[in-house]
Structures are given as C-alpha cells and as structure tokens.
Amino acid sequence: MLLKEEINKYLNYCKFQKELDDKTIKAYKADLEQFITVIGENNPDKEMLNAYLVYLHRMYKQKTVKRKIASVKALFHYLEEEELIEINPFHKVKTKFREEVILPKIIPRDIIEQLLNHLYKERSIKEYSEWRKKIILRDIAVVETLFSTGLRISELCHLQNKYVDLKNGVLCIQGKGGKERYLQIGNNDVLSILNAYKKYFEDEIKKQGYFFVNRYGNALSEQSARSMIHKYAGEIQADINITPHMFRHSFATYLMEEDVNIRYIQKMLGHASITTTQIYTYVTTEKEKEILQTRHPRNKINIGENFDNLVY
C-alpha cells in the first residue's frame, strides 16, 4: 500500500463525505504530505512513528505538534475503518504529552473604549467627504460586530446578507466544519450602527450577497479587516498589536469575568468542546490575582514597626 495514493482518497473522503471546509482540507493535505516526506510512502511501524514525533517536537511549538499528530492519526483511523491496514500503528504509540498553556491575548477595556471613541469621532468630522464617512461607518460596524459577537474574522467576512436579521437582532453563523449557530446582538447601539451601515451600503450588499463589503463593493477580505484595525490602532497609539481575533478573546474573557455560564460562552463561540472554552478561565484567574493584589482591604492595613521587627 502506497500512502500517497491513500492520502488522496482520504482527502476526497474528507471533502465530499465529511464535507469539511477548504481550509481544513488544505491543512490536512499539508500535514500529511509532510508526514510522507519525512517517513516515506510505505506503511510505518512504531519505531518510525516515534521518530516522526521526535522530529515534530524539535521543529514546532506544542499546539502545532498536536494538530499535525491529529491529522496523521485521523488518516490511519480512516485506513483502519476501510480495512486497508490490519493494525493501526498508532495503537502502539504514546502521543499524549503535557501541553503548555498559552493564554489568549485580549484587548484591555480602556483601549477598546478608546478605539471605539476614535472611530465615532472620525465619523463625525465635517471636513471629510461623504464617501470617507461611509467607509468609516463600515469600519465601525465591523469593529462593533467583532466585539459584540465574538465572531471569527473568517465568519464575519463570509457572513451572507440572507443570514442577517437586524429586525430581531439575530445572526446565523456558518462556522467551522459547516456548523451553524445563532448569535443575538444584545446592544441597541450596535444594532443601530448595523442598520445605518446596511442603509448606506444597501446596493453593494444586494449585488454581492455578503453583508460586509469593501470600498469596491466586493466581499470584505480578512486581510482588509486586519489592515483596517491595525491602521486605527496606530492612530490611537495603542501600545499593543491589535488583531481581529483579539476581539473574540476579549468577548469571551469579559463575559467570563461577568460570571456568564461557560456553557453559554462555548455555544456563542461555536466551540465543539468545552475544553477549548476553558482556556479563558486561566485569563480570569490572572484577573482575580490582580484584583487581590490591588483591591483587597489587607493592602490598606498598616502594621508598622511590629511587622518590620518580625520580618527583618
């Protein structure tokens, strides 16, 4: 059995039967091609797989290693189910390892407030042309939506007009793996902005079919959204690099700090597993530590000389 031929069949299976999206297929393909480049095209044994795992750990960060291993394990699970191999070699290999916890990067509340105030102020400058004001309105709508809903930037850019119900304040999101979820826009100011944006861009939206469009009337690209946010972050001289995904992290973290049930946050984010959502509990733990260090009443109690005599 040549792995290269079976990989092509497996990728077709993923695309047409499992109906995975193009990005996922592309990632699988890259991981599996790397696998056969390193270990060869013949069915690997335990020793070869262990050597490949060592190679991955030397070359990549833990999160990337985990994904690459998962891609290869999924292939061999498919081969086993299709009875193309008698024994799955991964059954004999230990692939679990301790992962480092990388905390999500969030945008401080004051910077979000500063950014939004800057955008609204820009929109109100009388000297600007109507065209420029129109584009700024679009930019406000994008930023407000990212922070209000926790959408992935890919989900925002691919949001179709037919899935936007502003009358009831509901968005129907086509998420990862074709999974559908509904999100409520709970802030009236954000709804007003989205209604104003839709009114100004009505012709472009109807023609293109996507809710968020660029200055040329085409669907807004992820790169354009990133560049736009980077530009405004520079204008307010933010001391952090702000990306669209950081609004998603901020959305989840600040809801967690307000004691919103983690299951609701999981549903809103579109996470398949609660484990993915639990990463935000680490961030709120850091916040709790900061609160105790700065606001606990013990910090205001002065023991004076008695403390110095005991410690020093």
UniProtKB/TrEMBL annotation:
Coiled-coil zones: none
Tyr recombinase domain mapped to chain residues: 102-293
Core-binding (CB) domain boundaries: 1-80
Entry keyword set: DNA integration, DNA recombination, DNA-binding
InterPro entries per UniProt: CB (IPR044068), DNA_brk_join_enz (IPR011010), Integrase-like_cat_sf (IPR013762), Integrase_catalytic (IPR002104), Integrase_recombinase_N (IPR010998), Integrase_SAM-like_N (IPR004107), Tyrosine_recombinase_XerCD (IPR050090)
Presence of keyword Chloroplast: no
Keyword DNA-binding in annotation: yes
Molecular function (Gene Ontology), one example: DNA binding
GO BP term (any one): DNA recombination
Family the entry assigns: Belongs to the 'phage' integrase family.
Its job: Site-specific tyrosine recombinase, which acts by catalyzing the cutting and rejoining of the recombining DNA molecules.
Annotated protein name in UniProt: Recombinase XerC
Organism: Dorea formicigenerans
